[in-house]
Amino acid sequence: MKVITLKNNTNEHYYPIDLIDSSLFYLSKVTTIFPVADFTIYEKNKNRTKEIHTVKDAVEFPYEFPYVSYATRTVSSNQVFYTFYRFHLLSKELHEIGSTHFPFDAELEGVFMTDHEVMFIIRKMDPSSYEDDVTHYLLDAKKEKQFVINDHTFHDAISTPTLFTHKGDTYLLLNPYYMETWEKEDHARYHELNKEKEFIGVISLKQYMKDVKSDYPIHPLIIDETDRNGFIRVIAENADSIYYIRKDFPTNKEELIELNKDDFGKRSYLLPKGFSYHSIRIFNDTVYFVSTEEDYFYSPMKKEIFRLEHTYFQHLPGVMNVYVHYLDERYIVADCWTRNHGEDLFYVAIVDKQERKIQYFEDKALGCEVYDQTIVIY
Predict the structure, then answer these.
(1) How far is 286 from 359, CA to CA, in rounded Å?
(2) What is the DSSP secondary structure assignment for residue 73, as one 8-state letter?
């Protein structure tokens, strides 16, 4: 187990991107006008740290190994111009994918980017409505064409698609939903009608692009679905599997479903009472559910429940939230947010069960990520 600390005495805030081999990639970011920011990417290897890429006025896209993708933003007259880039963390190569422009008040949100295609959302403020005007776009930079995505799979939905690999091809994982889980439970409890079905679906990226460009309805392979009497949510993934929760309101039955990325086979695990889908963690490809109030871990794959030996934050006043990691069935890594007399403080505790030692970190702004056997404090 190794600990890397990115905290320093400056006002800069660092955010880890990925740990690849022995190199930790992270960025410093200063938001100008949300979601536009200036950021610099660093590579830290052993005791050496070097700056590898800097960009101004950019909107980040979700990270997809090994690319950091973003759109730079420039304003001219009454137009806003976005240019799309992918930066390869290992080769340090920067690729310009393409560009687009919209009226000045358009705000861009990135969904995904490939070598020559970009899916993004444009939001425009509507003074006459409480809701923004939202349009989904697909840019084919190779053909220099831009398409409006008219299929309503994601229109007004909270979720966005996720990319994964299936038998060597890139696929989209679809899980559109229109309410948070607690809202849907309230609707079911008070018998309020909700016609929207929820589903888990997959479709090859190649077929998805083809359908969008032809303005055809999208027909994904439906892996699972539920009606208004339940919900279905993707909550985690690792190299081999996607994990989602399925809950049935009438029976209050909660299941963890393990979906194999290679053959789309499914395995189901019932959640015992006292454990919530909100607390799922994946450590070394094993799924655990954490009951932080009682300090219990549950592994449905191993069919075991065990208790932690330390209550690491019980002495702190105003504990708001605790997030726990578990390494090698030896190290417990927990980060905690507290609020006391209007002041927020953040803590990270690293517990060595074998040596019975505990290490604390404390700051007004503090976070923690775990990559294999490396803990990054930032």
Answers:
(1) 25
(2) E
CB 17 within 8 A of CB 369: no
Cβ–Cβ contacts within 10 Å for residue 164, how many?
Answer: 18
Encode pLDDT of 292-345 as tens digits: 555 566 677 666 665 654 456 666 777 766 667 777 778 888 777 888 888 888
The neighbouring-strand residues paired with 357 are 352
Alpha-carbon span 202 to 221, nearest angstrom: 5
C-alpha–C-alpha distance, residues 115 and 124, integer Å = 27
Q: Which residue has the tokens 């016609």?
A: 195
List, in order, residues 6 or more apart from 345 with CB less than 8 Å away: 337, 338, 339, 362, 363, 364
pTM reported for the whole predicted model: 0.83
User: What is the spatial distance between Cα 79 and Cα 56, in angstroms, rounded to a whole number?
Assistant: 18
Q: How many CA atoms lie within 13 A of 66 on its CB side?
A: 13
Is the CB of residue 247 less than 8 Å from the CB of residue 271?
no
Q: What is the DSSP letter of 63?
A: P
With residues binned 3-state (H G I as helix, E B as strand, rest as coil), the percentages for the chain, rounded to 5, are: 5, 55, 35
Identify the residue with better confidence: 308 or 54: 54
- CA dihedral sign, ordered 208, 212, 214, 220: positive
Name the CA radius of gyration of the chain, rounded. Answer: 22
DSSP state letter for 254: E
- pLDDT tens-digit series, residues 193-206: 666 788 999 999 99
Q: What does residue 206 show for φ and ψ, rounded to 5 degrees?
A: -60, -45
For 115, list phi and psi in degrees, rounded to 5. -65, -25
- Indicate if the alpha-carbon torsion angle 201, 117, 58, 92 is positive or negative: positive
In the numeric block, the tokens 């890139």 are attached to 170
